[in-house]
């Protein structure tokens, strides 16, 4: 059973409300449909139930217990839910495959370029295929694999700013608003931190690459 009693959510301290005084009860076996125009608070209401968004006031109960009194992870694991749009975290659906491509390609390339003589020498030492992969081929291919990871990280940081267009927020909000208002300062407020983040992560991975022992 799900109960909402005068539930509300404000993102600006109470000046305006995305959801105000919502009261409803959904019993076991019942189906509830929320209908309304875009921006009327449907998704915000759903997210308050599992505390992806914390309610500003009111009471929300699941099976007779306030959601605020429950462990947030246990609460979410006990509820099946699907939000509008293309997924719960739609930006991750696109970012993960984009990040995997350079990593997979560089891993394949690095392993393929291990000298044949080295592989034959490992076989001559009696290495099993798994031992050869772990102790010989991967260490030799590590620089190429890590280069793929660096490329994936930098690419992902850049693409992630586009997530603002599907409501995921982030630094892309500043870039999009700046472009819409022709405000270069607002655009740079999002673009500069994103660029610095990409450079910092690239340098960090470079440091890790130097620490990885090579064959």
Task: Give descriptors for this structure.
215 residues, alpha+beta, four-stranded antiparallel beta sheet, elongated
- Which structural class do the helices and strands define? alpha+beta
Whole-number radius of gyration? 25 Å
Strand content: 5-15%
**Which bin fits the share of residues in helices?**
40-55%
Secondary structure layout plus pairing:
Layout: E1 2-9, E2 19-26, H1 42-49, E3 57-62, E4 65-66, H2 72-77, H3 90-112, H4 116-124, H5 129-160, H6 172-181, H7 184-211
Antiparallel strand pairs: 1-2, 1-3, 3-4
What would you note in describing this structure?
With 215 residues, the chain is of the alpha+beta class. The protein contains 7 helices and 4 strands. The chain has helices at residues 42-49, 72-77, 90-112, 116-124, 129-160, 172-181, 184-211, and strands at residues 2-9, 19-26, 57-62, 65-66. A 4-stranded antiparallel beta sheet has the order 2-1-3-4, covered by helices on one side. Strand 3 and strand 4 form a beta hairpin. Helix 3 (90-112) crosses helix 5. The protein starts with a strand and ends with a helix.
